[in-house]
């Protein structure tokens, strides 16, 4: 080892203190420092990290003995022995992380979160090495760039949509394990299908580079939102963001994943409603695989948990700590762990617990401040055990606030009634009525549900009644306003209604449904285009097809083990015969047969023998069996075909080949057929005479869905309007007007309810008599392509462009 110069430069001293020199040179520098007072003094004046470095070395800086002594006393006993040997590893880990609180961003988190609006094009001249074509994707700009990854704005001409494509920086392609890490990120995120987690369309190899294909998100990151706000966020916004982040994390944890890098830059607020999306699962690990036990450090200083800083094994409580840091930042306007340099933030996580959030923001309720402090407890055992427990605290707070607001409204109502009574001359009697003691007798309330055993809490003012909701159960309750909630928080479902009123009568009935997602599968790798149910099966057995050329059979009683059958074409529709002996699938492109053939196979043996119906020359878009089982109808780019199931012969319906048809339905009596097309018209045929009964203009865009009522029919489409036509009406009743296209409708067996699925991924249930609507499906992240009622009328099945098929519990009519 060559001798050093008589004195060391500030740069050499800083590299030494950060552990970035090899062991031999470090020993030489230590020997020099023991004898050189000038270099000792220079080392003590290096800057913000000196207090940390010297405290670790047991040498308080000149003039700051008291401060450094406090720092050392507050530190865990093992801290000094822990960090000094690992300085070099910490320094390396810090170079690979993103965004320190208040500092720049550097690394592999979703780089789109580092730009303002990811939908804005950035000139390709910013990254001239990237081609304008990546496989089939047209590259239109660079959305953001990190230390290892770049997110590109691209266009997919096959699906006609803009996307984001994350690729490795060129210099990292040869780095061992980097490609695997990227694939792991995609697999981790794709394993969890949830509205609050960014979707992964696919993982592909393009030009030798692994690519993650994602939706092109619009909006801003929470990091940007916090930079725009001076001080804390409003409590209502704080609660909404906290709750949605918890829901996304709970879904990840249920799937066995720990995110390991929760921070504001990885929480995206998607326009237009600022829905939270969790980004960047690049550091995610599977719970229980011993991650961290090798002493490695991952995460972002300022948000990583103490066990991450120590290189210890991680679990769900690691994410809870990081989320607590995010909530602290939202609630106070300040980061809980700060420092002018990254190592200072790492030190404070381990040694200096932050002051309570309510001390910085006195307007923050104590229970929310206590929750945040508990989430950031230094020991994982002192934190909430699961994100669901955090959700329960947030929900309980919101529930009490709602009750307080409701109490104020009721008091104002009573005062208003009293004032009216006094003005009308009934003052004495009214005053006596409002001040009379409550002597109303309890009322027998019968609760009807459709859950086998669901524990709920019935609440009124300061009293609560536990109740196991089943087909029928009773309680004796005094008249008044009540709320009801599940005893255990379930993020994908809610009670409907959540409030009810007990009136002064002998008895009454309250029907409560536990509405929301019951089960799902995500076996399709592309858009789901059609679903159908095997008749007579309870729980339902669902068949689905998609653009991934797959037919999937899903027994919802065994939701984790669907079966598959590969198709030779991109399927666009599926239908099952009324007797359940045959399933028909079709689709194809605008090419010649056999891509446009209709295939028939047994629904209970989808890999069994296949028959083909040959006739269509263009893409088939919809199929329907007549309820009497005699006919199979199909529509597409070349008209309406009616197939005789006994002979296999087809007939082209008159006046149907003039434009592209998109949808069809057959009436319950098997006498009429209804179609809709891209010209905004619907046509009604008589099947027995095969003649046109009427043609109606049903909107300003493509008609996407039709269905029969007892006396009339329903149409919906791209203009977002549901139209209800009576048999002889010239004009329809416009039932509702949404702000986005409606892609699918379903009508209940008794024709009293209507389901719609739209481009925004929402499923709505409508009363066809009152027009009242309820949103019962919030889980799909992309457009709902198909929806149908289960025969019991209490459930529905949907398929979406997000590749999932879901089973829903519906409210009572």
Summarize the structure.
The chain is an alpha+beta fold. Strands 1-2-3-4-6-5 form a six-stranded antiparallel β-sheet, with helices on one face. A five-stranded antiparallel β-sheet has the order 17-20-47-46-45, with no helix packed on it.
How would you describe the overall organization of this protein?
- This protein has 813 residues and is of the alpha+beta class.
- The chain contains 17 helices and 47 strands.
- A six-stranded antiparallel beta sheet has the order 1-2-3-4-6-5, with helices on one face. A five-stranded antiparallel beta sheet has the order 17-20-47-46-45, with no helix packed on it.
């Amino acid at each position: 080892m060559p001798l050093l110069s008589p004195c060391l430069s500030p740069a050499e001293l800083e590299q030494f203190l950060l552990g970035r020199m090899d062991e031999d040179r470090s020993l030489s520098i230590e020997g020099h420092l023991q004898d050189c007072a000038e270099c000792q003094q220079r080392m003590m004046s290096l800057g913000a990290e000196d207090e940390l470095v010297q405290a670790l070395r047991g040498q308080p800086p000149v003039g700051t003995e008291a401060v450094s002594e406090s720092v050392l006393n507050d530190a865990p006993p093992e801290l000094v022995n822990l960090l000094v040997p690992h300085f070099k590893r910490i320094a390396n880990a810090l170079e690979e992380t993103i965004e320190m609180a208040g500092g720049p961003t550097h690394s592999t988190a979703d780089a789109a979160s580092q730009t303002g609006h990811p939908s804005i094009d950035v000139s390709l001249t910013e990254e001239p090495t990237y081609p304008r074509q990546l496989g089939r994707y047209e590259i239109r700009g660079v959305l953001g760039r990190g230390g290892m990854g770049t997110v590109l704005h691209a266009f997919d001409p096959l699906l006609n949509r803009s996307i984001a494509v994350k690729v490795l920086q060129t210099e990292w392609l040869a780095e061992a394990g980097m490609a695997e890490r990227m694939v792991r990120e995609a697999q981790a995120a794709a394993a969890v299908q949830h509205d609050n987690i960014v979707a992964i369309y696919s993982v592909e190899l393009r030009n030798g580079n692994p690519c993650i294909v994602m939706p092109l998100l619009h909006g801003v990151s929470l990091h940007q939102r916090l930079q725009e706000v001076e001080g804390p966020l409003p409590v209502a916004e704080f609660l909404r963001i906290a709750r949605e982040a918890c829901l996304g994390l709970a879904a990840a944890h249920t799937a066995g994943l720990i995110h390991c890098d929760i921070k504001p830059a990885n929480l995206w607020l998607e326009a237009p409603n600022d829905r939270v999306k969790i980004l960047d699962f690049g550091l995610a690990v599977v719970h229980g695989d011993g991650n961290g036990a090798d002493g490695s450090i991952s995460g972002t200083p300022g948000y990583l948990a103490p066990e991450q800083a120590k290189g210890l094994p991680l679990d769900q409580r690691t994410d809870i700590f990081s989320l607590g840091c995010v909530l602290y930042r939202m609630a106070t306007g300040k980061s809980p762990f700060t420092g002018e340099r990254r190592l200072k933030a790492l030190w404070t996580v381990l040694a200096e617990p932050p002051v309570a959030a309510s001390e910085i923001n006195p307007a923050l309720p104590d229970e929310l401040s206590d929750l945040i402090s508990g989430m950031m407890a230094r020991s994982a055992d002192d934190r909430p055990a699961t994100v669901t427990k955090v959700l329960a605290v947030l929900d309980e707070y919101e529930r009490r606030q709602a009750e307080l607001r409701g109490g104020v409204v009721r008091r104002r109502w009573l005062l208003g009634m009293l004032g009216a009574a006094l003005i009308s001359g009934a003052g004495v009697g009214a005053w006596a009525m409002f001040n009379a003691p409550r002597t109303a007798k309890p009322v027998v309330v019968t609760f009807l549900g459709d859950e086998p055993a669901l524990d709920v809490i019935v609440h009124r003012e300061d009293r609560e009644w536990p109740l196991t909701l089943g087909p029928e159960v009773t309680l004796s309750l005094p008249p008044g306003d009540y709320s009801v909630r599940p005893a255990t928080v379930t993020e994908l479902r809610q009670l409907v209604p959540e409030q009810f009123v007990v009136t002064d009568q002998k008895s009454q009935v309250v029907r409560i449904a536990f509405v929301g997602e019951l089960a799902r599968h995500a076996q399709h790798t592309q858009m789901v285009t059609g679903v159908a149910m095997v008749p007579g099966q309870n729980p339902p057995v669902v068949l689905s097809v998609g653009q991934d050329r797959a037919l999937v059979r899903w027994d919802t009683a065994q939701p984790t083990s669907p079966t598959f059958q590969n198709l030779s074409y991109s399927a666009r529709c599926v239908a099952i015969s009324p007797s359940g002996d045959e399933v028909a699938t079709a689709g194809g492109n605008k090419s010649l047969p056999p891509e446009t053939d209709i295939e028939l196979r047994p629904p209970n043996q989808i890999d069994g023998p296949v028959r083909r119906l040959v006739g269509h020359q263009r893409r088939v878009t919809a199929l329907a069996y007549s309820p009497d089982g005699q006919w199979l109808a199909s529509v597409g780019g070349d008209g309406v075909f009616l197939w005789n199931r006994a002979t296999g012969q087809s007939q082209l319906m008159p006046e149907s080949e003039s434009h592209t048809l998109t949808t069809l339905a057959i009436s319950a009596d098997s006498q009429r057929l209804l179609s809709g097309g891209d010209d905004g018209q619907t046509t009604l045929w008589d099947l027995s005479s095969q003649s046109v009964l009427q043609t109606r203009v049903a909107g300003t865009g493509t008609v996407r869905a039709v269905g029969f009522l007892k006396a009339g029919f329903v149409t919906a489409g791209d203009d977002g309007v549901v139209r209800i036509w009576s048999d002889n009406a010239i004009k329809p009743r416009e039932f509702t007007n949404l702000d986005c296209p409606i892609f699918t409708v379903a009508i209940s067996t008794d024709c009293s309810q209507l389901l719609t699925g739209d481009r925004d991924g929402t499923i709505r249930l409508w009363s066809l008599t009152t027009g009242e609507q309820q949103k019962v499906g919030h889980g799909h992240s992309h457009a709902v392509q198909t929806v149908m009622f289960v025969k019991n009328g209490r459930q529905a099945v949907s398929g979406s462009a997000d590749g999932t098929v879901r089973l829903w519990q519906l409210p009572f009519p």
